[in-house]
TrEMBL record:
Residues 222-380 form the Helicase C-terminal domain. Transmembrane segments: none annotated. It comes from uncultured Friedmanniella sp. This is ATP-dependent DNA helicase RecQ. One of its GO terms (biological process) is DNA recombination. It catalyses: Couples ATP hydrolysis with the unwinding of duplex DNA by translocating in the 3'-5' direction. One of its GO terms (molecular function) is 3'-5' DNA helicase activity. Keywords: ATP-binding, DNA-binding, Helicase, Hydrolase, Isomerase, Metal-binding, Nucleotide-binding. InterPro entries: DEAD/DEAH_box_helicase_dom, DNA_helicase_ATP-dep_RecQ, Helicase_ATP-bd, Helicase_C-like, P-loop_NTPase, RecQ_Zn-bd. Signal peptide: none annotated. GO terms for cellular component: bacterial nucleoid; cytoplasm; replisome. SMART domains: DEXDc, HELICc. Residues 33-208 form the Helicase ATP-binding domain. SUPFAM superfamilies: P-loop containing nucleoside triphosphate hydrolases.
Amino acid sequence: MAGAGAGPVDHIGETAFEVFGHRRLRPGQREAVQALLDGHDVLLIEPTGAGKSLAYQLPGVILAGPTVVVSPLLALQKDQMDSLTVHGRQTRAGRLSSAEGKRDREQTLQAMDRGELEFLFLAPEQLANDDVRSRVTALRPSLLAVDEAHCVSSWGHDFRPDYAQLGSLLDDLTPPGGDRPRLVAMTATAASPVRDDIVERLAMRKPRVIVGGTARENIRLSVQREVEECDQQKAVLDAVTELTGPGIVYLRTRRATEDCAAELTARGIRARAYHAGLPRKARDAAQEDFQAGDVEVMVATSAFGMGVDKADIRFVLHGQAPESPDAYYQEVGRAGRDQQPAVARLFYRPEDLALARFFTAPVPRPGDVEKVVAALAASPDTEPSRAELVEVTGLGPRTLGRILNLMLELEPDDGGESEVDRVIARAEAYRSLQRSRIERMRAYAETRGCRRQFLLRYFGESDPSRCGDCDTCRDGSAAEEEAQEAAAIPSPFRVEEAVEHEAFGAGRVMSLDGEEITVVFDGSGYRTLHLPTVLEQELLRSSAG
């Protein structure tokens, strides 16, 4: 069907059934595909397991020209490639990533050169390879799909510098005097600032932002507060022992995952540790065994989860609070994808977040930034490799990488500040953002209100109702909190309204909770302000005037 051109709405359903075997499309899927066929770029935000891949697979089959899919998830890439070839017809797909051997890689490159591929899957780090980039450009794709699009945004909880290449890739893919490929960016979770940043960084044209249901009603949220670390560890072990079904336990350190997995194994539970320090083969084997049901409980750091396609996970436990509600909601969203009841429980000690705050990304020393700026200025015509920069500057690879990533984030120079000052200012703003997210995570753990309501407000839903099923709803405290909010003074501000603060600058209202108003500011992240004080002292004003 490639080359058929953009068809009428019913053609979408016909193609979905004939090629992919889908009798019915979800509203978000159909809306996204139609918008792409109508010439819009699309940002699609749907929960994991909601079938986001159809948003590029369908238009990729209907439109003339190949589709390039950028995704960091190697296992998911393989699953998606397999799904393209098992339905109505054989679809020619290839992949370039670190998982391919030399022979497979060369076969894919040759197929690209011959114009034989309909779908090309790319790991984002491949875009740094000049040869790969030039050959992708030569494909002249009609559609570019960006999976895990929150990685594009420095506001996102999982920003990846490799994704910074995507903006310039789009420029390369646009022939002189020709049309730029259509673009669909997909993610499971993205608060309003992240959405705006994705649209801006990818220079999306006529963007359509489609937000599916972010509420996961089948997941029961709860927080169990502990005083001592030893009690916290025992509580996690006891909870796993009591719960049934496949599950995931998230812990902060590699050592903790191994100790916990060993203890669970001693209790007769088939558990396995998973973290980035394990060899790739060990990680792949652990994930495959978990997927197959040979492992009951995966005890993991945050390295585990992206691309896990297991529908029957019955619980996700966090032994410590993650560093943001964004990361937390994405991780708990791995439970209950079969829509059956599931449990998400956080074991919370305030000290855990105090430690996380201490270890937020450090601001580099001005002298170190000066060394990098000078080294780059000394080679204006050829960009030195990172190994060369390490040798010239005397900086460690991590420090150097952090400074280079910050430099990628800089806006075009207006001639005002020095590049060193701009890098330092960017680092300070990023640290403020990280710390503000930690405080929102603390607010979630300590709220007396409905926990699902808290998270949905964080992600920009204006007036979500109480879930009736989380721990605070069940013990009655959420109803009491709601009554207090109803009795509070009315707010002149609206959720999503653009505002200005004399000290913090421009921002956007994210939630209104009784006498508290939470605003995310461009330069300092999330701030929760006392609404009566804000009104009395006129600290906020609407940007609309």
